[in-house]
Amino acid sequence: MSTKRGMLDTPATEMLASGIKVAAIPRASIATPAALKTAIDSQSPMIFSGLADTWPARTSWNPSTLRQTHGAREVTALMNLPDKGVLFSQDQRSFEKTMPFSEFLDVISKATSAAPCYLAYKRADDIFDPADYDFEAILGAGMADGDTRVWIGSAGTRSMLHSDLKDNLFCQIWGEKSVTLLPWSHSRAAYPFTDNLVNSQVDLAEVDLEKYPRLRSAEFMHSTMLPGDILYIPRGCWHDIRSQTPSISINHWFGASQSLGEYLRLLLLLGPKYWFSTVRDFIFHGLLKRSQKTLFFFSPPSTGRRLYDALRWGNFSKDNDPSKQ
């Protein structure tokens, strides 16, 4: 359904109508690197407007300019994605198509929300000059070391409710996106998949309180990201991100990873179904090295495989890079 300015409804519309508690994501009254550091130190989600206004990306990353500067570059995008459901109907790779960037930019302006398309999880420096964005000026020396990705797509693209191992700065460059957050402390209300503790079974835009009753006591936050907004998402914080319009975003993961102990404590709380699934995947995807399908927007290794990697390699997030899958 559309709202004013031709934008799509956000998940908060359905959640509020169902009686779920949804507050606004706080916006910093003063957007400075010092204020951002305070939010990071306290692990508090916060939107900062204007911190990236001096970046060349803010003026040059729009379809009109990018057609001229990067149009001949080949990209591999996800085309005609499903508009409903948490899982893909088939392996993610079956949606991939390679084309000139200029052609993809034309497609995103015409694609409907019923069949969105996405150039997603692409390393930023594979396409753009790193001088276009400057996380070091925002985070400080050392903290800017991390993983930077770009996200370019039509209205209706969806990164469904999930959590990440590291702190995240999510920057909206062009267009608008809705973001819904759920604190790590409310992870049981996210109803993770039994074989995957970082992806939720819940579609927040189609809430089923009978199936997922813990949503009633969860405390969500939601806001619309406007061009120039930067959102700090603490590590572990669940987030659902959807394009309200054609959109260009960039994000940067940084800092220390969430600990294996935190995931093991969540696994303990979730109960026997999760324990069985973890043991099964420890054997099949860890010891026996059997591959798994990519049925989410991006499927990280299963919990059992992650536990195997932690014990075998000392790295809970080994092979957690979609560009290498």
UniProtKB/TrEMBL annotation:
<dbReference type="InterPro" id="IPR003347">
    <property type="entry name" value="JmjC_dom"/>
</dbReference>
<protein>
    <submittedName>
        <fullName>Cupin-like domain-containing protein</fullName>
    </submittedName>
</protein>
<feature type="domain" description="JmjC">
    <location>
        <begin position="112"/>
        <end position="271"/>
    </location>
</feature>
<dbReference type="Pfam" id="PF13621">
    <property type="entry name" value="Cupin_8"/>
</dbReference>
<dbReference type="InterPro" id="IPR041667">
    <property type="entry name" value="Cupin_8"/>
</dbReference>
